[in-house]
Amino acid sequence: MLKRSEYRLNVSAVILSSRYPEKCEFFIAHRSNAKNVWQFPQGGIEEGESPKDALRRELYEEIGCNDVEILTEFPEWITYDFPNTKSEKIYPFRGQSQKYFLVRLKKGARIDLHAYEIPEFEKYEFVVYEELLERVAYIKQKVYRTVIEYFRKEGFI
After folding, report:
1. What does the mean pLDDT of the chain come to?
2. What SS3 state is found at 134?
3. Count of domains in the chain?
């Protein structure tokens, strides 16, 4: 068993547009601090915070909107290691252990990437599944595919 301190506990949001189920579009955002890196919103879980509370806080901090309906969550934590060069420079962790949530934006929800003092994302788009896997960072493609295929198989998407 891994030591809890080796992996940063983290949440990630697979966001469906408010047009779901009529149209199945996924939210992806382009990181402000990296070239050509698109991903789902995600972030660490703070001390004493539940994963659902962290999800709502992180959504507000990253996209200025936590006006979502939580549809379900992936049943397991997904753990991965940071690439060696990155982990030593950025985090005192070996990697992250993530809990994925499937959420849908509520009708009328407004996204504001500049709601927080230092924006994590510079732009966003809603894309279909096939485009999502082509656009997101390579390191995230396998995990995103696993999580979304599970949500599809279980009938949530």
Report:
1. 91
2. helix
3. 1
Cα gap 13→140, rounded to integer Å: 13
| Block residue for tokens 């962290």 | 54
Q: 49 is in which domain, residue-wise?
A: 4-153
Q: What is the biggest distance separating any 2 CA atoms in the chain, rounded to whole angstroms?
A: 44
Region 2-27: mean pLDDT is: 89
What CATH number does residue 9 fall under? 3.90.79.10
Please give the span between the terminal C-alpha atoms of the chain, in angstroms, as a whole number: 33
Beta bridge partners of 38: 30, 136
Cα distances (angstroms) measured from residue 110 to each of 19, 59, 64, 133, 135: 14, 12, 8, 25, 23
pTM of the full structure? 0.90
DSSP-derived secondary structure letter, 136 = B
Residue 90: pLDDT band (50, 70, 90) is low
Q: Are strands 78-81 and 95-105 parallel, antiparallel or unpaired?
A: antiparallel
DSSP string for residues in 14-54: EEEPTTTTTS--EEEEEETTSTT-EE--EEEPPTT--HHHH
Checking if the pLDDT of 41 tops 50, the result is yes
